[in-house]
Design goal:
This protein is of the alpha/beta class. It has helices at about 25-40, 55-65, 90-95, 100-105, 120-135, 145-155, and strands at about 1-5, 45-50, 70, 140-145, 175-180, 185-190.
Length: about 190
Amino acid sequence: MIVDLLRHGALQGGVKYRGRVEADLSCTGHQQMESVWRKLVNDVDVIITSPLRRCAGLAQIWATSTGIHCITDERMAEIHYGDWEDKTHDEIELEFPGMLACWRADPTGMRPPNGESPEELQMRITDFWQDMCATYSKQHLLVVGHSGSTRMLIAHIAGQPIAYTRDIAMPYACWSRAQYDGENSQILFIDG
């Protein structure tokens, strides 16, 4: 199984901790994702996407235009940032001094106020990967997700702890590839 991982592109309204808040792609974000899709269009058998429209919108268009199946999977949604949702770094720092710096260094054991812990994200991502390996073992998949969910999936595939997610560059429309050979999983590249 080959799995291409694509983070959504740049969003309107600039950089914020959006988590589960809906946001539209900017023109640049749309172009970024289309650029990766053009490289994959002839190889992908199935698209699996986060339900949030910054991922699902283009994923569904691609699937319809090529006649392939598109599956929405809640487990690939972004981490829920709770009280940090839809706030900038500066807004979070003002309301929760020092907390974001600790989160960015190593979120292990932390939780954004009223949000989801990285351990909870890790559990749903682990479950997602196990289901994919069991269901799509001979196919080429495209998984469209977010910075947090994709980093956690990469960490899981690489057998790394939660803290490893902080070492992965994940710019908008970052494209990565993993494989599962029936026994072992590995990351082939991260194009960050």
